[in-house]
Design brief:
Order of helices and strands: HHEEHHEHHEEHHHH
Distance between the termini: 60 Å
Strand order of the largest sheet: 2-1-5-4-3
Number of helices: 10
Strand content: 5-15%
Oligomer: single chain
Largest sheet: 5 strands, antiparallel
Structural class: alpha+beta
Number of strands: 5
């Protein structure tokens, strides 16, 4: 008779299954909210629609998307209001603030009371200007795939106060969903002229599929995750997805989980 599994091992497996179930339920809940919000406003689901949905989902005044790549200091992709656009202009002009720190470190920055000594000391120029614009709290969640960081989701309030723990968990999920949407949108914007071979599949897409399969094997991740990594690398290096795919297929480029381009 085979020995039974140690209690600790059984508990670890059970805990892992429970964590995966909770994670799946959270993702389903977030996706349902984003879809319902877009439907209510009569718009298709997109990174911009998801940004708008954040206002009600997290009880904030506004939300904004900042994109960074290897060619400059980044720019605003979308803002739900003028204050969000002002915050991005401050980040770009001053080179400091919660968004700047979050993109640099790849970790969330949660400033629940911006008009405080702690943050005034940390970002003196940014805080004074942001508070003057009416901002009292800023919550930033990086858009990242592995070590590659392409920008941030920036939430702001005109009154101080923290996000709840549930809202923080949901915001991480929303940031991942928005990043995937953004990479899809950016990939469509960089579609190369395609030549149709006899089998009807565009050559550039065939190369992307091949490169995705190679990445999946090299990095030990799913095909979906491999495609996200490929797209994130393309954006970070200001290349089209097809260009990166061709380099991977031609073995001129090999991505790794540790690859980390300078987000600036």
């Amino acid at each position: 008779m085979a020995p039974s599994a140690p209690h600790g091992a059984a508990w670890d497996a059970s805990a892992q299954r429970e964590a995966e179930s909770v994670s799946g339920e959270r993702l389903a809940k977030v996706l349902a909210h984003l879809a319902a919000d877009a439907a209510t406003r009569g718009v298709p689901t997109s990174s911009e629609a998801a940004c708008e949905a954040c206002v009600t989902l997290f009880g904030v005044t506004g939300a904004q998307l900042t994109l960074m790549n290897g060619t400059g200091r980044g720019e605003s992709r979308y803002a739900t209001n003028d204050i969000g656009a002002q915050l991005e202009n401050l980040r770009f002009t001053l080179g400091e603030g919660p968004c700047e720190d979050s993109v640099r470190t790849g970790t969330p920055v949660l400033a629940s009371d911006l008009d405080s000594w702690e943050y005034d000391r940390r970002w003196p120029l940014y805080v004074r200007s942001a508070v003057a614009a009416g901002v009292r709290a800023v919550f930033v969640f990086p858009l990242r795939s592995g070590a590659i960081r392409i920008g941030a989701l920036v939430l702001h309030r005109t009154s101080p106060g923290p996000l709840t723990q549930e809202q923080i968990f949901d915001a991480h999920v929303v940031a991942d969903v928005i990043m995937t949407m953004l990479l899809d949108e950016l990939a469509l914007a960089h579609v190369d002229a395609e030549v149709l071979p006899l089998d009807g599949m565009p050559l550039s897409r065939a190369e992307v599929h091949q490169a995705t399969g190679m990445l999946s094997a090299q990095m030990g991740v799913s095909m979906d995750e491999a495609l996200v990594r490929l797209r994130a690398h393309a954006f970070a290096h200001d290349q089209s997805v097809v260009e990166v795919a061709r380099d991977i297929v031609g073995r001129r480029l090999r991505l790794s989980p540790e690859s980390r381009p300078d987000p600036r």
